[in-house]
Structures are given as C-alpha cells and as structure tokens.
Design goal:
With 368 residues, the protein is an alpha/beta fold. The protein has helices spanning 36-41, 56-69, 83-98, 125-129, 167-180, 199-204, 230-233, 248-262, 269-289, 315-321, 326-335, 354-367, and strands at residues 3-7, 10-13, 18-21, 76-80, 102-106, 131-134, 149-154, 183-187, 210-213, 224-228, 295-299, 302-306, 338-339, 346-347. The structure holds pyridoxal-5'-phosphate.
Length: 368
Amino acid sequence: MVINKAYDCYIEDKQGNKFIDTSMGAGSQIIGHDNKLIRKISEQVKSGTIYTIPNIHTDAVNFYLKKYINPEFHDKYVFCNSGTEANMRAIRLARAYTGKNKIGRFHGGWHGGLDGFIESRGVPSIFNELVEVLPYNDEGCFEKITPDLAAIIIEPVQGSNPRSDIGIFLQKLRERCTETGVLLIFDEVMTGFRLSMRGGAGVFSVKPDVVTYGKVLGGGFPIGAVGGKKEILKTKGVFYGGTFSANPLTMYAAKLILKTIVNKRYIRYDKLNLMGELLRDKLNQVFIDKKKPMRVIGCGSTNRVVFTDKIIKNREDRDKLESQNQKYFYNQLKSNGVFINVNGIIQLSMSHTHKIINKISSAVMSTI
Ligand SMILES: Cc1ncc(COP(=O)(O)O)c(C=O)c1O
C-alpha cells in the first residue's frame, strides 16, 4: 500500500481507497492526521527549520517538561531525532554514569533498531553479550537483576502485549533496581503522552531514573528525548549532539503539543482512554458472540488483537498460544476499510469518535 494523503483518522492510498487508520503514524498522531496544530507548525518554516544553535522553542519545551511532566524526578532533558536514538543515548548515559557495561532488557520489548537489541545480520555477537534478556511480567526476572548491570530498560506497557495489570510488577522492578544499584530506564517512546500526560510513570506511579520519549512529543515530526535528574544527565564526557537534534521545527511542534496537553485543548486523555476501552469491549463482544478464539488486549488507547481466547501474561505466552492465520484477518479487514499496521498495534487518536469505533467493530464483524 502506498499512501497519498492522511486526514483525521483516515489514510488514502494512491488509487483513492480510503481506510480508517488505527496506526496513526505508529502512535505519533494523537490528535489526528492533518490537525490544526500541524498546520500551525508550518509557520515555523518561515523562520527557518535548522540553525544548529540553541533556539527559543527548546527552552519552552524544557520548561513544560520540567514543570508539568515529572518534576520531582526528571529535571533535565536532551533532544534527538527518534526513539531509537533516545534509547541509544540513555543506555550510553547509564553506562557512563554507573561505570558498568551490561544492560537488562525484557523479552517482547521494542526499543528501536539498536545493535544488541535486535536479531539482525550485521550485528556482531559481542553487542548481544552486553545485553541480558529478562522475562517480562514474571517475578523470575528479579533474581537476574544483579549489581553488575548498569541499567534495566523497559517499556512500561509493551506494544507486543499491551496491558493495564502491570503496575505491581513495575513497582517491584523499581524496588529491585534501587536495592541492586541498577538504573531504571523507562522507554516511554510509545507510552509517553499517550497513556496519560505523565505516560506510564504517571499511570503506574513508578519513578524511573531515566526516561526516553519520542512519537507524540514531536507532534508528527521526528523527535527523541532523554530525561533524568541533572546529576545523571550531566555525567561528564557523554556525547549527545547531532545536526538535526533540537531543530526549531521539531521543537516548535513539541512546544505546541505540550501546551495543548497541559491546557487540555485538543488532547483529552479521559476521552481517548474511553474510546480505547470501548474498542476493546466491542471487539471482545464480537469475538465472543462469533465464538472466535480471538481477543483484544490493551491499556488506554493502545490495543492489539491476540489470536487466542486464553489469558496471556507476556509475549512468550502469546507466541505459545496464538494461532497462525493472522495475515488473512488483517488483509480481509483492510478490504473492509480498516487498516492495522504490520506491528499489530492499534493506537487511537482524538479523531476516533464513538461512530468510528462502531465502524471498526462492524468491519471486524464482517471480517471474521
Ligand atoms: C517503545 C518504543 N521504543 C522505541 C521505539 C523506536 O522509536 P523510533 O522508531 O522513533 O526510532 C519505538 C518505536 O516504535 C517504540 O515503540
């Protein structure tokens, strides 16, 4: 599929076919495509899009993040151009701050295409030796968190099995990291400014030492951010720069998005989360009524279809329990006018109204 244009919750391909989009730029477009804010951002183009010298918008973004997001535990932020880059920097920072090299990450998590974090040709095996993979949502992971680790990185809610019952696990993880002197990094690239104004940290009341953001924060422009206490962020000798880092266009977009969030203008998390819940309830009812071994699981406005009616605890369970005929469902659903991205993650926006949820539900009903 090749896309020609996108507006509200719709995408149109080059043949003019229109689909309800449930990916929304992999979660970035929380207001909707071609929204009022995006159009305002284009004003910045007239004043230049790249200076490589600090700009006024970055100060404003820092101000909003410090004052409203997690003021008690993150007081300094640095900016880059993607979630992957933010995680690369966070990991480098953790290694420099602790003087240790090994990083713990969780099975089923996604932190971008970082060497040592993905299975890919071209990655020397030595990178993987510096990363320990732990079982997610499984208390068996705690004994593997030992003082030789520099940091643990985790998505508070994993896209591969989005769930809202993860709070206690995250709180225990916080305790274990403190006990062992291991930094806790929350990768909030997907969950930040989506699950709530304060991301997963806010929803589950957990204070990570370092946080990374991306997606929603850029308002549709490429962004990454690393936040933490000054004491950690100011670690000497850690490199952060880059030609496009904190460019005025992206920073202007981030400033407007943050203003919007703080002032509850175009983004209302209560409404957004309600639509997420409605989608889960409606689709689950369709699956139950049609006796299909399928369910929707999720947290807030982030959902995914799983191809089993059994309860799954993590990605490992998903892999064991899911049936394999998933491609047919996604292709057929697309023919019925609803697009779910290849990663299977459904991310709603403010333009997904009750009426749109009903349309998605009817399309699923005709698909299965
Ligand atoms: C949790 C998480 N971390 C990191 C990334 C990578 O971000 P980017 O694609 O902007 O590099 C993603 C992207 O999907 C993500 O969902």
